[in-house]
Design a protein that fits this description.
The chain has 435 residues and is of the alpha+beta class. The protein folds into two domains: 131 residues, Chloramphenicol Acetyltransferase (2-Layer Sandwich); 286 residues, Nonribosomal peptide synthetase, condensation domain (Chloramphenicol Acetyltransferase). It contains 14 helices and 14 strands. It has a six-stranded mixed beta sheet, sandwiched between helices. Strands 7-14-13-10-8-9 form a six-stranded mixed beta sheet, sandwiched between helices. The longest helix is centred in the middle third of the chain and has 24 residues. It is globular and about 55 Å long. Keywords: Acyltransferase, Transferase. It is an enzyme of class 2 (transferase). Pfam families: WS_DGAT_cat. GO terms for molecular function: diacylglycerol O-acyltransferase activity.
């Protein structure tokens, strides 16, 4: 998996000045992740250091003439899908791409990409903060606390909790709705999309910026946190989109719920990237079922919020936070049960992180938008949708990436992102205002 961060700037920047800035920020320490190469040995993944870096190779400027007539989303799609440098053996798996004068204007794009083994979303936000001399709030300041006796009980119970998680995932596996027998379309099944073979493995990315004040208003009226609010908006928007396009029968909400395996990345207390410049990869998942048959949207939100709270008090959740890298002590062939997603009909995920409410500037250029995204290696078998949201003051930057099993083209995913997602937010906001 490749972690991607995109800064959309109002003016262009100098690539050589950026290399100097990047070197000052991240390459002075010899143990920086940007000096590390990912290798495998006996089924385990390791990192090893390299002594020298070619910054002209890792930080490159691409001519805007290559993208004449293309939208911002189309440019981001092209850059995000090109992982030749990340996947190449030898150099550390990261790069920065700079595109100036996008869409014939004075704006620019700075895209930072690195292998997920080197860092995660928290690390990415910290990198942006360091480059822009800003500081984002820690999403969860307090460590989870538990007594020694409770810790012993949790450690002894951890294998059982792991088995429950794995078997729960297996129980959710159902027939892929896109692959019905004899290519027949059945009621309640997702209608297959005909695609060009050369495009099957490519992802689609779309972005939008919404009014975060509306989310905060929903939070104040319902008492629910931001993550379950965005979760309910996400699944309702996806449901409405699929039904309105005639790809699902409106009475088949249960099918949609079953076809989408939902895993959400929960806040990580005291993540090293939020309290220092220590970049790393932590994975603390949560699962929540959103009952699509529940027509009471506010009641659905309350019940979803309660399910998140229950998960965060789960013993397994606590021990993962304590051990941090519990999943990385397992060999890769065991982890494939989770990381290889080809057995899942579709995958639905949401990650939400707060950014600084202060203005972002990079080398004197004002930030217009800040987006976070991931791409999967072609062997991952990923199918589905992942939504990343970053809050900046009163703005909510939304980045949606999905496979072509869901969206035929860029126009369809842009319609979902820029229309449906905002409409469902407005519905929740209206219901709260008139409650």
């Amino acid at each position: 998996m490749v972690v991607i961060g995109v800064m959309k700037l109002k003016t262009k920047i100098n690539a050589e000045d950026f290399r100097i800035k990047f070197k000052d920020c991240f390459l002075k320490e010899s143990d920086s992740i940007f000096y590390k190469v990912v290798t495998t040995f006996c089924g385990y993944g390791f990192t090893r250091k390299v002594k020298n870096l070619d910054l002209n190779h890792h930080i490159r400027e691409v001519s805007s003439s290559s993208y004449t007539g293309k939208s911002f989303e189309e440019i981001v799609n092209i850059l995000a899908n090109d992982n030749k440098i990340i996947e190449a053996n030898g150099p550390p798996p990261w790069e920065v791409i700079i595109v100036n004068s996008i869409q014939g204007g004075s704006g620019s794009i700075v895209m930072l990409k690195f292998d997920h083994t080197l860092g995660d979303g928290y690390s990415l936000i910290k990198m942006f903060d360091t480059l822009t001399e800003n500081e984002s709030p820690n999403v969860n300041q307090d460590k989870w606390k538990c007594s020694l006796l409770a810790m012993i009980r949790i450690v002894l119970k951890a294998p059982y909790e792991c088995l429950c998680l794995f078997f729960s995932m297996n129980r959710d596996l159902v027939q892929d709705p896109l692959q019905s027998k004899n290519n027949e379309t059945h009621e309640g099944k997702l209608i297959p999309i005909s695609r060009g073979e050369e495009e099957d493995d490519r992802i689609l990315i779309s972005t939008t910026t919404l009014d975060f004040k509306k989310v905060k208003s929903i939070r104040s009226h319902t008492g629910c946190r931001v993550l379950p609010i965005l979760t309910c908006i996400q699944v309702e928007a996806l449901k409405s989109f699929l039904i309105n396009l005639g790809r699902f029968d409106e009475k088949e909400n249960e099918h949609i719920a079953r076809y989408y395996r939902s895993i959400y990345l929960l806040p990580i207390p005291q993540h090293p990237a939020t309290i220092s410049k220590q970049f790393c990869n932590h994975w603390i998942p949560g699962t929540a079922r959103v009952n699509l048959n529940d027509s009471d949207l506010i009641g659905r939100l309350q019940r979803t919020s309660n399910s998140f709270d229950l998960w965060e008090r789960n013993d397994f959740q606590i021990i993962v936070s304590k051990l941090r890298s519990i999943f990385y002590i397992l060999p890769i062939w065991v982890l494939k049960h989770i990381t290889n997603l080809e057995n899942f009909p579709h995958y639905n995920s949401l990650c939400s992180m707060p950014c600084s409410s202060k203005k972002y500037k990079l080398l004197g250029a004002d930030l217009e938008n800040l987006f976070c995204c991931v791409t999967h290696h072609s062997s991952s078998g990923f199918k589905g949708i992942i939504i990343f949201t970053l809050t900046r003051g009163d703005e909510l930057d939304v980045c949606i990436r999905a496979t072509r099993d869901l969206f035929r083209n860029q126009e369809e995913i842009d319609t979902f992102t820029k229309i449906y997602y905002g409409q469902i937010l407005d519905r929740y906001y209206y219901l709260c205002q008139n409650a």
